[in-house]
UniProtKB/TrEMBL annotation:
Record key words, sorted: Aminoacyl-tRNA synthetase, ATP-binding, Coiled coil, Cytoplasm, Ligase, Metal-binding, Nucleotide-binding, Protein biosynthesis, RNA-binding, tRNA-binding, Zinc
Gene Ontology terms: biological process: alanyl-tRNA aminoacylation
Primary enzyme class: ligase
This enzyme's EC code(s): 6.1.1.7
Cofactor(s) for this UniProt protein: Zn(2+)
Protein name: Alanine--tRNA ligase
Any one cellular-component term (Gene Ontology): cytoplasm
UniProt note: domains: Consists of three domains; the N-terminal catalytic domain, the editing domain and the C-terminal C-Ala domain. The editing domain removes incorrectly charged amino acids, while the C-Ala domain, along with tRNA(Ala), serves as a bridge to cooperatively bring together the editing and aminoacylation centers thus stimulating deacylation of misacylated tRNAs.
Originating species: Chitinophaga skermanii
Gene designation: alaS
Amino acid sequence: MTAAEIRKQFLDFFASKGHTIVPSAPIVLKNDPTLIFTNAGMNQFKDYFLGNKVPAHKRVADTQKCLRVSGKHNDLEEVGIDTYHHTMFEMLGNWSFGDYFKKEAIEWSWELLTAVYKIPVDRIYVTVFEGDASENLAKDQEAYELWKQFVAEDRILMGNKKDNFWEMGDTGPCGPCSEIHVDCRTDAERAAVPGASLVNADHPQVIEIWNNVFMQFNRLKDRSLESLPAKHVDTGMGLERLVRVLQGKQSNYDTDLFQLTIRATEKYCTKKYGQSEKTDIAFRVISDHIRAICFTIADGQLPSNTGAGYVIRRILRRAVRYYFSFLDVQKPLLHELVPVLADQFKDVFPELQQQVDFVKKIVFEEENSFLRTLESGIRRMDEVMGNTTSKVIDGKTAFELYDTFGFPYDLTTLIASENGFTVDKKSYDVALQEQKDRSRAATALDLDDWVVLEEGNTKFIGYEQLTSPATVQKYRKIK
Ligand code: ATP
Ligand code: MG
Ligand code: MG
Ligand code: MG
């Protein structure tokens, strides 16, 4: 079964249970002061749960483009190293706004996974909220009883508040959740180690695929809970993980969702996927990051030096550095993958195909300009790491790498950690703040702000100005 068929089966299944299929919200959020990127399917429905808006339909389902690289959910460090955390991923979800509750949600998730997708019953584990006496929260006995109809009791595991109780924020809707995990280990591995203890214990082949949240309480300012008059269901299942399970792969990257861009990347380098762990990580990171970059730009967020734009620039530069350092590619490569993705997703997210030339051009310009300083930045890092015995890169150097060579802080820490170094964040922050103060002072003095000066009169004050084609010719006058 292809990923497209698997996605369609999910939506068809919930349509058959009376759900209206709605489009994904944009990955970039412009009107939410609390969140810059969509990080879960429920984000676009927040106002229904808060009671600020009345939903047009009480049952909906969709596939939502999500990005988890900042704030509460930041999976960036995992990406490419493990095989199931992505920056951008699709979250399949079904919702009940004050309509059905635990019984239907649990029955349907079981029916979909075992009768439609045919995942073997003895490979599935579920988790249930165990309760928390300090918060006066009871065990979710109702969910336990419902699961017991389907799952042997030794595969129903109790989970704590951190994993199995969901809250929107300090106040507002909240409730227990039940996760579904699939054990993809080989038969031999399963025979050697008893399975249940592995759930949530970071075994790379036992993975969480689906979370069912049951919103039944409202958290008040004094931390007390009241029962919600209308109870809601909010579920999220990672498509890439589901596809990996159904296609019988050991890694999300071996599914058809990532193979096209991995094969395309191979055409531009002399390496092949599967040759070594080091180059494989690079292939995985590139095929992951290009999705985040493309869909975010297609949703209207250009790379820039602040906010959401800087998050995208950071991801893009990280991907460039991976092909530069590990795949021996010195020329822009990412933009070549844009049409591959656009074609692959044209039926589900046509917005990329509709702007394919534009997105390709932006990506090309970004990677091209970063490649101009990347090599000297890496050389500078090697020099610093070679000259110190402390295994710490000082903040001043990290700032210089950022300011002069365009290295986002997390790229510097990544390269540092690959070499057994850490970065002094405190002194980096001080240097960054000093620059902000300097530029504020300079702006106060110089009302002309950007002026083109003759050579000799100018001083290069950072990589930042080289990134945008419109400002390439401009240098800031330093008094
Ligand atoms: P994990 O514990 O693996 O980080 P999570 O508990 O943070 O996942 P949820 O917030 O419960 O994830 O999201 C619902 C589902 O979305 C998960 O069960 C998983 O299938 C998927 N998912 C979450 N984060 C990612 C990610 N970074 N990449 C791919 N899929 C993800
Ligand atoms: Mg997580
Ligand atoms: Mg989890
Ligand atoms: Mg979860």
